[in-house]
Amino acid sequence: MNFFKKLFSSGKKATKDHEKSEIDVNDLSQKKEANYLEKDTINVIKKEPKLEKKSDSEPKTEKKKSFFKKLLVKTNQNNLDKSLEKTSNSFFEKIKKAVVGKKKVDIEVLDNLEEILITSDVGVKTTIKIIDAIESRVAKEKYTNPQELDIILKEEIGNIIFDEINEDLNVNDKPYVILVVGVNGVGKTTSIGKLAKFFKTQGLSVIIGAADTFRAAAVEQLDEWAKRAEVDIIKQQMGSDPASVSYDALKSAINNNKDVVIIDTAGRLHNKINLMNELSKISRVLQKLKINAPNEILLVLDGSTGQNAFEQAKQFSEATKVTSMMVTKLDGTAKGGVVIGISDQLNIPIKFIGTGESIDDIEIFDKKVFVESFFQNKII
Ligand SMILES: Nc1nc2c(ncn2[C@@H]2O[C@H](COP(=O)(O)OP(=O)(O)OP(=O)(O)O)[C@@H](O)[C@H]2O)c(=O)[nH]1
Ligand SMILES: [Mg+2]
User: Fold this and answer.
1) I need a labelling partner for 108 at 20 to 30 A (CA). Which of 155, 178, 315, 351 fits?
2) What is the pLDDT of residues 76-103, one digit of tens each?
3) Ligand 2 center–CA 266 separation, angstroms
């Protein structure tokens, strides 16, 4: 199954050192929304990085166009296996205990399985769905061997999470604007660094907007990630208007013909009305430059919080128009089962997962590969 447009691999070295720049527009922070258009022409453009001269070795427009159409990026199964090791081990330890000495899949086995799925953070509704499916299969197929429970479980979980909507990231619509949201500490800023590098290695040019102006040191932290990913960053001082920073970032992306804009936002409590207000203000202001911006509202969830992540996903998606999700910190947790519940219960695709703290610890979420990794253990 394809998740992304194939992002050109044939060696465009996307961003060069001299392309990197920082734009500090502190003086703009107090301006009103109505002044954005005026502001950018007066102050921002002057400070923006120059357009990079196209070198002869770079692909021509025609070639560049084509890379958006084909799909290349694949999930690294080994990396995912490692990240889901704890989840899988813990799940299978419980399953093995539940079927030991059993000659058939009876009510007791199913009851235990139900408990195992729930304690593995799959979530109650999805667990019931899985148990119902297994129950009717056992009845129909006269399935009796509990040692093979993992095989039907894998099939049923696969069935449940595979029927999903369009998951393509259509970066053709450039600059492709991704607004990154989520509560405190889930890994938004880290994930932005990873995403920036990810897109860059696909030959896309990236600009990051430091619109978390709320927390001290947030801008410096993002700045650090921009350096690591070797991409441009647009920032203002702490306390300035996040919508203003977002506007500047998009403006700069348009002026410099960038492919992707990723905007960091402050982690706030998901039930606060000001989150909604802030995000809709950012969107409104972005729309002054690009009518359908942001292209994505990417919700970042901390997978190690299990059902909490699920609750956040529900509440966020009720409050804002979340279009995709990234689940972080799947490494080092046994709560990876939450991904199954989220995929099943919410009509929003998970597009990426975080598998560690380093810049390359990111994988495209491919359900098939995910299920394979989840079932990397066997009962026998
Ligand atoms: N193990 C692991 N740690 C991660 C992952 N993603 C982020 N982290 C860690 O999570 C912590 C918080 O990450 P941030 O990127 O600062 O989170 P944030 O959502 O931007 O936080 P606020 O800006 O305070 O809301 C850091 O210590 C990161 O290293 C991941 O995929 N795996
Ligand atoms: Mg942050």
Assistant:
1) 155
2) 889 999 999 999 999 999 999 999 888 8
3) 6
